[in-house]
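TOKENISE THE FOLD
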Amino acid sequence: MNKFVPVENNTVHTMSARFIACLIVVFSLSPAFGMSETCSASMRSADTILVQKQQSSKRHKVKLYPNANHEVLFFSARGVDGRVYQLFLFDIDGKLVKQVNIKNKQTTILEKIDKGNYLFEVFSDDERIENGQVIVR
């Protein structure tokens, strides 16, 4: 049974397609679910980028998300006009891996991120707007 959920632009999406996509990701990342080695190995050969946010600001809307092929990471921010947003990406050892500055309502691309676990923080005028974790597999 499909459940229809209205979204902001008055279009309707089915939950079942999203649910199936989530299941595919979960099954492809964990061999414990009984998938054949051939199937799970072929699904794991492509990189996967996961983003987990820990803090959200109500005044600023920060987006950090991978493209469809999980090859690059997009960073965009919206909030107060004239603001500059800074993204800092750290490896697990605390070493700064990438730093990106964008203006309000802009988007940039982060490329060539090695596999591993990263922590990120987004600042604007010395105020932490967002933080979280990025996992590249």
Observations:
- Residues 1-45 form one domain.
- Helices lie at 15-29, 37-44.
- The radius of gyration is 17 Å.
